[in-house]
Specification:
Order of helices and strands: EEEHEHHEHEHEEEHHEH
CATH topology: Spore Coat Polysaccharide Biosynthesis Protein SpsA, Chain A
Number of domains: 1
Radius of gyration: 17 Å
Shape: globular
Number of helices: 8
CATH superfamily: Spore Coat Polysaccharide Biosynthesis Protein SpsA, Chain A
């Protein structure tokens, strides 16, 4: 019996108020490229559809995606811009908005839009393990961080994007909007995938994070 081929689709979350940054994070430029564009581009390489969920400053997000020539015509065909009008409830409400637009039999990447330095190779590593480790529901990248002292061993730190199976969507949608995504994921079987990519946990929450990221990358 032939089974349907798994496709990969993605969700990038860009609906928040950016209250800690003070400036609106999606449009902040690092080497002339907005943070949201940096977050979306590696995902496009591996997904047939990328859903960018906006909320606050939705019209400005639309302009960055569709009018400012950061994406090729072929890339734009893969992008779907979705509006979460309930964005004040937090990130999980945006996750649910995106999940409602995912097709059947898909592997689903979920990525906060303020994590702009994830390598394309990290997506490849997650897909490879997804296709071979069928007994897990969720796949989470993890990378080594340097210990604070020379005696300690390297530690693994989890990051993004996470990759989930679409069969989980209906159950995830049943959780209330004010839940925390990390807590929700605890209810499913998880596989941590080691990658050589510190970009998986470099997020841009405030001005200090931004300056550190600029120096590192």
């Amino acid at each position: 019996m032939a089974y349907p081929k798994t496709v990969f689709e993605g969700i990038v979350l860009a609906a928040g108020l950016s209250s800690r940054m003070k400036d609106w994070k999606p449009e902040i430029k690092i080497k002339d490229i907005p943070v949201i564009v940096r977050a979306v581009k590696p995902m496009i390489e591996h997904c047939e559809k990328v859903i960018v969920v906006g909320g606050f400053n939705f019209e400005k997000l639309h302009r960055i995606i569709y009018e400012e020539n950061y994406f090729t015509e072929q890339q734009l065909k893969k992008i779907v811009l979705a509006e979460n009008k309930n964005y004040v409830m937090g990130m999980f409400a945006s996750v649910k908005s995106g999940l409602q637009m995912i097709g059947n039999n898909a592997g689903v990447f979920i990525m906060p839009g303020d994590i702009p330095f994830v390598k394309s190779s990290t997506y490849s590593s997650l897909i490879k393990i997804y296709n071979t480790e069928n007994n897990f529901d969720i796949f989470i990248p993890a990378a080594k961080v340097e210990p604070e002292n020379s005696v300690a061993n390297d530690m693994l730190r989890r990051g993004h994007p996470i990759l989930i199976k679409s069969k989980l969507i209906n159950e995830i949608l049943s959780y209330p909007d004010d839940k925390n995504l990390r807590d929700v994921l605890e209810d499913f079987t998880r596989k941590f995938v080691q990658v050589n990519d510190k970009g998986i946990f470099i997020d841009i929450d405030d001005k200090n994070d931004l300056e550190k990221a600029k120096k590192i990358f």
